[in-house]
Fold this sequence. Notes:
The structure is a single chain. By secondary structure, the protein is mainly α. The protein has a single domain (10-83), classed as Orthogonal Bundle (434 Repressor (Amino-terminal Domain)), CATH 1.10.260. Helices cover 45% and strands 10% of the residues. It contains 4 helices and 4 strands; from the N terminus they run ββααααββ. The protein has helices spanning 20-26, 31-38, 42-49, 56-70; strands at residues 11-12, 18-19, 79-80, 82-83. The strands form 2 sheets. A two-stranded antiparallel ribbon has the order 1-4. It has a two-stranded parallel sheet with strand order 2-3.
Amino acid sequence: MSRGANESEGYYAMADQVTFKELRIRAGFKIAKLAREADISPSSIYRIEEGEKVTRELVQGALNVINDKLRTSYTVEDIAGLNL
C-alpha cells in the first residue's frame, strides 16, 4: 500500500482509506465511551480526529478497541488523515 505525498511529514492519506472518525462512528462509539474503553482521554480522541500530532501507539490503542467491536484489523497505515 502506498502512502500519500506527505508521508515524510507524518501525514497518511489515500483515496481508499477510511478516517478514524468514520470507524469510530461505524463502531457506534461516542468519543467519551471510546476514550474510556481505550483508557485514554477524550481530548486524545479529538486530537486524532482533528489531525493533530499524536503517537502511533495512541492511535493503535484506540483502533484496537474499534477493531474488537467491528471484528476488523485496521492499523494506523489504513487510516486517512493521521498526523504521526
